[in-house]
Amino acid sequence: MLALRRAEHFFLRLGVERAELEDIISRKSDFIRPLVLWDPDKPSKPRAVISCRGRLRKLQNRLLKEILAPKLRPTKYSYGGVKGRDAKRNALRHVRNYYLYKTDISDFFPSISHHRVYRLFTERLTCCPDVSHFSTELCTFNGHLALGLPTSPILSDQFLWKVDERIAKWCANERLRYTRFVDDIVISGKRRIRPTVKALITKVLQQSGFRVHKNKSFAQTIGVDAVVTGAQLGVGFVCVDERVCLRIASHIDDVDGLTKGIRPTTGVYFDKQQLLGKARYVRYIDPVAGSHLVSRIESLDWNQVEANAEQLDAISVRKELLSPGVNPAWFDRLCALKPAKEESVTPTLL
Length: 350
Description:
It is a single chain. The protein is of the alpha+beta class. It has 15 helices and 13 strands. The protein has a five-stranded antiparallel sheet, covered by helices on one side. A three-stranded antiparallel sheet has the order 2-1-12. A hairpin with a 2-residue loop joins strand 4 and strand 5. The longest helix is centred in the last third of the chain and has 18 residues. The two termini are 38 Å apart.
């Protein structure tokens, strides 16, 4: 708990006067810019985020660093946005099992309203009304937690303590293993997981004010196209989904072609930093496969790539944050082509 019962102490720790904080909160929209995240690997799935800047961003960061992070602890089942835990460690928790069940929480951040955040500060974290009010205003936008605010991950995790404990207790009785990566729920075991798991998770989430994402509950066999938070599970090991490696290799081939004066079919190519970011993540999961990709990228003559790209009317692409209603320059070129259908084993939909 935070136990902040005097507003004066709260202002002191934030390094702000009450009048200034009230002014910033009254003009919150001046500091927040709605944006859309575009990923050229998923051009048809733009993602709405917000960018917070200026004095408001500094106060949110200070609230996180000085007040929330030192006191609020994640559950032992939570692996997303937690120091010392990540997507790979989340996947590794399940590698010794044979069967897998996955689902996720629908509209996770938007479902946590400012009313719920206020109650969290007043009831569970035992803060006085003034502190709870100002904290809630600093941590929400448009009436709820939002993707892009630095305090959203740590606060959202506090709302899932009971969810984690109840699901984990059921899993322990069933000799199953449970983890959660932000809003992605994963359960695994050495024997087939009973279909009643979906009803149980749906009930537990509903009782805590959340919903299971429609059509995103899957039962799979580990070793047969089972992917957890970006890592493919085998029995006793994790690796990278082969399709991810093939996709990156294809992007590298496009760039290599440009060095020889061959224009990519799509008319676009991934820039060096974007490719290196993808390859380095692969290397973290699978050092051998990732190191090969990184080596290929770094061996390319990028000066020649840029020179030839200009002559051949090929444009570089990378993830972009743009204003709503503005499409990236590469959007029309990528969306004009239908993506190749990937071969995969269809999971069981529960």
